Structure prediction request, 301 residues.
Amino acid sequence: TGALRICGEFINKYHPGGTKPDVYVPNPTWGNHIPIMEDSGLKVKKYRYYDSKTNGVDINGMLKDIDDAPDGSVMLMHVCAHNPTGADPTLAEWEDISKVCKKKGHFIVMDSAYQGFASGDPDVDAASLRMFVEQGHQIALCQSFAKNFGLYGHRVGTFSIVCDNAEEARKVESQLKILVRPMYSNPPIQGANIINTILEDEALTKQWFDDVETMAGRIIKMRQSLTDALVKAGSTEDWGHINKQIGMFCFSGLTPEQCDLLASDHSVYLTRNGRISMAGVTTGNVEYLANAMVGVRKKAP
Prediction:
């Protein structure tokens, strides 16, 4: 959140020519993206992202909307484990996205909140980000370490911008310090110190890689368990998208009415857009969840 707000304020104040570009976000996206950018004085628009018919990425719609946007627009993208859909472009699709953005001169803002929690490998999860940098995009990167380091409440993240050289980097850093001074002056330091301690120690870094692999692996396993349980509960629908999606969330395809019934009839709680937090699905409740999902599909088809 903090990194995104700094990014929005920076774009608003320092965009070339003194203009305020529109910020394009995927449809749907994390709910807080829109008020963060709007409160930074920027207008938010959306590009197509999710195809409810396939429960996957609408890559053709996405590419067209990015191409149709005015040259030099700001494109906000999720590095991996898209929230709320769990649907990510393939590497080949990321290549196409990069090419269109490069052609249009768009400024790319990358939101990285789940690195390591998608595939279980932080390096694999950073592939899209690194591809854009290698292809010459001077991206802005907004990172959160709340999930992948288990540091909720510590407000730990980073805001980074790729610059041409050390002198430009020095100037950008100077302006960023001026921006944050009246916002919060100095962030809490204990969370950052914890992460520095881990990443500066080879053994602790390996342990962290192992731990995120364990966490991501459990979530991937529960995706398969949920699809198996849905079949066992008598569903004849195709739930393959649950396994194809990645990260902490599953965009189930349940309607708002079905989500309401899950809460009222089964005490199962999820957002009304059908987003399930897969981190909350366990071996002890997966069959109950599957039976409840099948039940509400029948009650309110």
